[in-house]
Amino acid sequence: MTKDMQDESEIFRGTTTGSTRLRDARSVRGTPKAGMPAFVLGEELADLADSDPRIVVATADLASANRTNDFRDRHPERFVNFSIAEKNMITAAAGMASTGLVPYVATFASFAAILGAEAIRTDCAYPRMKVRVIGSHSGMSMGFYGSSHHALEDLGMLRCMADLTVVCATDANHLRAILRASVDHPKAMYIRLGRGRDPEVYPSVPQITFGKAARLREGTDLTIITCGSQVRASLDAAEVLAGEGISVRVVDMFTISEIDRDEIKAAVEETGAVLTVEEHNVTGGLGSAVTEVLIDLPRCKFRKHGVPDKYVEVGPPAALYAHYRLNAEGVAEVAREFLSV
Q1: ∠210-122-41 over CA atoms, to 5°?
Q2: Are 267 and 226 in contact (CB under 8 A)?
Q3: pLDDT at 341 > cutoff 90
Q4: pLDDT in tens, 86-99
Q5: Is the Cα torsion angle 235, 30, 26, 336 positive or negative in sign?
Q6: Residue 40, CA distances (Å) to 45, 53, 55, 172 in order
Q7: 58 beta partners
Q8: pTM greater than 0.85 (yes/no)
């Protein structure tokens, strides 16, 4: 199925009624270029490369999908298309890093993390090569492409690898911040992106520190710890709940490994209830990482919310987010259930 075919099917065949109600920025093409994480990837890397000759970029036949073609057009001598050879691409990037280059390799998250796991561990993390593996179109954002293209296990697979920093970009400005901070990061990295159409959370490029979460909204009744595509949904859910008298703190835990233990401790001590929200299997991802911290802290109410531990349905992304209660309405509903127990 081509990209155009999928986009069209998401609009017109996503429901039995033919309704376009499910049309949103994550499901269809045609939204403005600005504010789309995947679409700023190549542009930001090209900007960084203007003043840093160490930066090189590679992809595996996905230059258009992940917009690394914007880098290719400006720095063709520092761009490599490996075709469909993801593992070889990652291993070759480790070789480039051993010479002092700073390679960024980008492909779909399912291919980067699942196909490339062994190369990431053995060739990049273990010898501490400064390779930045970028997995775009993560979670179930590929919709109709199905389980082979859904990446709902990548965080669980990679966050347990030593000497690998795992981060999630929330929106376009957040991705720019991550890329800028990544250039001189001393370890190999996995950078998880959405499909490139995630709604805005950060109106400007934020100041970030890997391992330090961003507290985006204060609250006293509950802390939602989230990342990536679910940050906007959680903020919108918090706004809905505020209208019902429920005060919700929202934390963007964008560094999954190494996770911000102090922020989790503050959530426990100051709100007494923690709900994790993620577009990932509930086993192994952000929720599991938070659980590993909570076990050393005083007891508090806790629930993980994400994709059930099974292969997800196939359909329009917006329909999938609604089905698995990973839109604002769904997150608010889960929070109400959690607090009522």
Answers
A1: 45
A2: no
A3: no
A4: 999 999 999 999 99
A5: positive
A6: 8, 20, 16, 6
A7: 80, 105
A8: yes
